[in-house]
Fold these 2 entries.
Entry 1:
Amino acid sequence: MDPLAIDRTHLWHPYTSIAAPQPVHRVREAEGIWLTLDDGTRMIDAMSSWWCAAHGHRHPRLVAALEAQLHSLPHVMFGGLTHDAAIGLAARLVALLPPGLDRIFCCDSGSVSVEVALKMAVQAQHARGARGRSRFATVRGGYHGDTWSAMSLCDPVTGMHGHFGAALAVQHFTPAPPVAFGADWPEDPAENGLGAVAALFEEKGPEIAGFILEPVVQGAGGMRFYHPAFLRGLRALCDRHGVILIFDEIATGFGRTGRMFAMEHAGVTPDILCLGKALTGGMMSLAVTVASTALAAEISAGDPGVLMHGPTFMANPLACAAACASLDLLAEADWQGAVARIGAQLADELAPARDLPGVADVRTLGAIGVIEMRAPLDSARVHGFCRKAGVWLRPFGRLLYTMPPFVTGPEDVSRITAAMVAIAREAT
């Protein structure tokens, strides 16, 4: 039977209908920035396979780390046991993170990392005696994953999970941060978005356990870049009202915005940090939820005295080994220079799209480039164009975007930007 026929008959791809399945490319091999299809066609992975393959595919150092770990300890439960791959990962992460963020809980995926962060916040509030604090607040335009509680914190109107309606927990939303990255920062809270947060905390503070948001870059909720000063003001408000601050850096961590972590643009440290995606360089699924020592101590001193979560594949040695090797590559490479070079080229070469009548905005930050259209793109048409252009792009709604691997050279970045502008022109 034709493999693609089996795919259409039995596999259910993300965000698709089996009644009208979207076309798929059958990938035979991936190496560096390239995806090789079943007929030999090659496409640049301009998506870093949903943000994660920062070093490109099948980097020899990452492959070697996995092979070495595979021959000694592929997996062992983490309850009551530990291993060198997890210990090494913890040491590397603590060295990268701000002081105080040093209690690391390993998770299966980014969405699970968010779920764990929410559990941490509720348990910490209960340990403080604030048992009424069980809801969460966030800004509109955000995205935090597809698991149940994470869905409740995605934008309820424009987000992809709004149709679940009353089945999701009721959370509190404030407007998306209104001041763009690089714009002048107005001190008036009514203009900079912090006034709405302050009003919410004044009214609903006693029921809010934590405030979660993506620092500086709102990813799948709209690919928006906002002013870092919002985070500084939010940190102060959370401290004043006893609200636990959670940063979701699953998409932005490990260099994508030009800083190792997006929160560094603001110089702000959260109480809880979620990391994933590029953590393993795209080799394995792994995420971590990192808590401050103070918050971890509060949870441990409360009832029941333990964090109530424990995935079967927590701290899987293969994933931890890949993460250690990926972090070593970041430590040794000039990723800052690569991201700056890619970012400058994206800004320059995507700029002509601003003149197209169908384009609403063009924006870049770090190694992220976005063309926002005035109307939704036809994904099937873009899909076919990508094969011909040799560039893999996957738009959603009105957004056409790229986040290429950091190893993408200038000629290949130009190939990506040319494809994006051509898609925008064709859709106009």
Entry 2:
Amino acid sequence: MGVLIAVEGVDGAGKRTLIDGVAADLRGRGIRLTTLAFPRYDRSVHADLAAEALRGAHGDLAASVNAMALMFALDRAGARDELSKLLADNDIVVLDRYVASNAAYSAARLEQSADGEIVRWVGELEFGRFELPVPALQMLLDVPTEVAAERARKRGELDDRRALDAYERDGGLQHRTGAVYRELAERDWYGPWWIYRSGDDPATVTARFAEFITR
């Protein structure tokens, strides 16, 4: 079975750019690596319903923290068989967001810490009831909130399909989410975490991921 690694961070942190660069490097070394991004927009009805709610559809769905968290959790639950196959066919599977994103954003919306009830509920729901695989490593891409927000804004201006949703427009939410992410990392929530910060050498990510192949 392959190794599951989740890359986490607020909107605009640069997860996709970093993952793409590291993936290309590792594939060049002959490592079988694939990626999967959550939410699975345009592939999952639950992800699409959540996205539509964050843009004003479906009544008061977006107002409920638990309802939105459940939508995102059901998206991942629907990908469980796909994840199992990807892990069977590859050395490394890198996820662009995973369960911790649900925990961090939900806690931030409720202004709870990583020790709060909603974080426990998300973990028990997704890793417990839905039996999703626990990552071997969760990496937090920790960048200043202001930098991430500006990147997200520019991205939305260049691509109408990526226009800012209600979460992305809320600067306070993004700031609180970053704080909860750091708390999750400090607590090694559901396994080991590693914090990668702005200015760090991307080569360290490649090396860290490659270590799992030689273990």
